[in-house]
UniProtKB/TrEMBL annotation:
This is Gas vesicle synthesis protein GvpL/GvpF. It comes from Streptosporangium subroseum. InterPro entries: GvpL/GvpF. One of its GO terms (biological process) is gas vesicle organization. It comes from the Bacteria. It is found in: Gas vesicle.
Amino acid sequence: MSSSTERSRTAGTDQADRSAVSTGSYVYGIVPTDVELDDARGVGDPPGRVKLVRHGEIAALVSEVATNRPLGRPQDLKAHQQLLDAAAAEVPVLPLRFGAVMADEESVVDELLAPHHEAFLAGLKELEGRAEYVIKGRYVEQALLAEVFAENAEAVGLRQEIVGKPEDATWDARIRLGEVINQSVEAKRDADTSAMVEALVPRCVAIAMREPTHEQDAVHLAVLVETSRQDELEQALDEFARQWEGRVDLRLIGPMAAYDFVMTPQQEQEGE
């Protein structure tokens, strides 16, 4: 059996361990103060319960996190995005970058909400009734290569030079063929992106071009749209899907938080 002294030492150690775990307030984004939350969960292990820290006409979406455990797991990033995107489907939201942790809820008010109240409020009013969507288009590889060789005589000549010959004997030709194909794909991407932007301008509040995430990306756009005009956006993309059938696979992602169209004080400081 354990002595009372041993039990006392164990209890004291447990209390020290618990007291050593410090916490902070993880901030997801800014919403109007009259928002009501369901039982939302955010980052952390286990996921923290999300609550509102209010000040004036705005509020911050926050949850408690242990500051001695690094954030950055794929689950944390996914939880951050899912919370903001779910909020954006219902109310205007100004998203903060992943990983924003403040000392406590009082710091959230004193250092974030109070000094930037008017700027945040103006930003929320700008987003009222609007949401971001992302358009991704990827070339179908066989169709893409068929176009390149049909339109580029140099590519055809290089391919003929390579066929049936050892790799080391045609190294320069192979390198050049890769360059020609990449240049052709970039030109096609520019032309197809321009065509889509021209068609979407009348239907969107704003459009932002995103960098390609794959060498076969045809289109990668973020668009800010009045939620009441989502059907028009979908109809325009359906028309492009018909024109590009068998050539480009299109996806529409959203609604989501307006990551590409807001600049919070946190992001302004990062850009300085």
